[in-house]
Write a structure and sequence with these properties.
Two copies of one chain form a homodimer. With 149 residues, the first copy, chain A, is of the alpha+beta class. Helices cover 23% and strands 36% of the residues of chain A.
Amino acid sequence: MSTRRYLEDVQPGDTFESGAITMIESEMIEFALRFDPQPMHTDPVAARDGPFGGLTASGWHTASIVMRLLYEAQPLGDTPMIGMSVDEMRWPQPVRPGDVLRAKVEVLAVRISKTRPSHGILKLRMTTRNQRGETVMVQEPNCWVPRRP
Amino acid sequence: MSTRRYLEDVQPGDTFESGAITMIESEMIEFALRFDPQPMHTDPVAARDGPFGGLTASGWHTASIVMRLLYEAQPLGDTPMIGMSVDEMRWPQPVRPGDVLRAKVEVLAVRISKTRPSHGILKLRMTTRNQRGETVMVQEPNCWVPRRP
């Protein structure tokens, strides 16, 4: 079932909870081999002697998983959300095989575009935690979304 | 051949040029189906009526490609670079199938860690352009790197 929501349907302070995604070692390695082939992300044996004492996900894999969590949280239903920019992004803790990630999406600000008033900009904060409640990624994206026609 | 460079080997103002990566439509769709399954990134036909008039890469795919370009530019040789945070990230133009992306890496700042003086923080600016010289992504990551032993 298709649902469309618009800029007017969200308010600063609204929050959305995502489902969960489990990080699979083979997928972490596959992602890293393509995009971030440092041994700490690709080689479980070499990673033991690396900075985290074991294999960790590329931060860009974690960021991509967070995008999937945001997509599933559907703050605007099926309405496309175009990422324009991210004001801040941090990876405070490493992500390891078997970690279960969940994101909380908060609406920080909603404003109408000055140049194209048919659209607006939604500033979000996404906080992603693992199964122990440790924050593994924080980001504050600005998304371009349509206003109600 | 393995080469290791350290915090001391780079200075503010240093620049590095990456090689090139061509964006392949099937890879863009495959990435988006896993991480960002909005029709503008997954369905060439539906994307024609979407916000960019054609298929575009997920911004997280572009970000991951930029990580690969950074890896290949090797500002620190084989020394691991751990991404701690990104101060700012923008996608000023969409990335389309067939686009050829290249990144320029500039060293903005180099500082020694106060809490762990064996390491330091390298602040970079990465500017990624397409074959027409249009900027498709800008980001300013902070990387944790070892000092010379």
